[in-house]
Amino acid sequence: MAASGLDFEKQFEELERLIAELKKPEKRAEAAAQGIDLEAQVAQLEAELQRMLKKQYSLLTPWEKTLVARHKDRPYALDYIRMVFDDFLELYGDRLSGNDEAVVGGLAVLTGEPVVVIGQQKGRDLKERQRRNFGSAHPEGFRKALRLARLAQKFRKPLISLVDTPAAAADLAAEERGISEAIARNLKEFAVLKVPIVVVIIGEGGSGGALGMAIGDRVLMLEHSVYSVIPPEGCAAILWRDREKAPEAAKALNLTAQGALALGIIDEVLPEPVGGAHRDPAGAAATLKEALVRHLAALRHVPPDTLVASRLQRLRSIGFWTEA
């Protein structure tokens, strides 16, 4: 595996390189000729790597979880769509002014059931990231998502939303074209859609950029994803005038999946493969698929009016607390 760029993962890189070296065909042939049981050595080293990863990833700080959620090799929405759904027909444009490539979506099939899926896409290389605005949607992206949500309601199909964005676009052009109105309209209309909605935070759930596509009957988070009112760097810049204090801000924001579950903001934390979804995208996709099928099965026969009433009650209940 290539170097991850995460400081706390550097301790694993030498062991990973050794395992990769021992797995080369020429090494296997050389060991066989000498009567060496190379397979046993590789298995022992892999077990040790798994043990180290499991320990390290059980002790991640909120800031380290933020870095994992942003990992360059972490599966994005289109990766999960390819691995989870049996078919996908992407639809483009908001039917008003343009097509925002930070938001993807279309018609899909999940274990034989037609669904509508929307997601946020960051991009792999610099060129694609620039084209997709690093996953930060403009007004056209939120309006595209709303157009697809209305399509789901029109044809009475479940809606699945895969959230992964640092925040909504914050440039002057986005403001001029009504980014605040677009997010607010999504909040209003998603809340009263008469179809089941399952939301999954697959990476970053940042600020209004996430909220504009995260109203649902079930909200799930992958184990090492984050969900926050503001990115840690922005919070640190506001509170301390120092972006270097982002780790402290991450802790104060309580942005982890486990924190969100404890606060009742989400319904379930989906476990990731040992070492994070970036180490085993297929394993993460299998977990995601099982959860989607399970939650949609529970929502499938709920009457539309009951769905809406329960969703509104769920939203109203967030933020209640008691004082000792």
**What is the radius of gyration computed over CA atoms, rounded to a whole number of angstroms?**
21 Å
N- and C-termini, Cα separation: 50 Å
Shape: globular
The major sheet is characterized as: 8 strands, mixed
Notes on the protein architecture:
This protein is an alpha/beta fold. The chain has two domains: 53 residues; 252 residues, 2-enoyl-CoA Hydratase, Chain A, domain 1. The protein contains 15 helices and eight strands. Strands 1, 2, 3, 4, 5, 6, 7 and 8 form an eight-stranded mixed sheet that branches. The chain is globular. The termini are far apart.
SSE layout:
Blueprint: H1 10-22, H2 25-33, H3 38-57, H4 62-69, H5 77-84, E1 87-90, E2 103-110, E3 113-120, H6 126-131, H7 139-154, E4 159-165, H8 172-176, H9 179-191, E5 197-206, H10 207-211, E6 218-222, E7 226-228, H11 232-239, H12 246-253, H13 257-262, E8 268-270, H14 281-299, H15 304-317
Parallel strand pairs: 3-4, 4-5, 5-6, 5-7, 6-8
Antiparallel strand pairs: 1-2, 2-3
Helix pairs in contact: 1-3, 4-12, 5-14, 7-9, 11-12
Give me a quick take on this structure:
With 324 residues, the protein is of the alpha/beta class. Helix content is 49%, strand content 15%.
List keywords for this structure.
2-enoyl-CoA Hydratase, Chain A, domain 1; 324 residues; single chain; 15 helices; 2 domains; eight-stranded mixed sheet; globular; alpha/beta
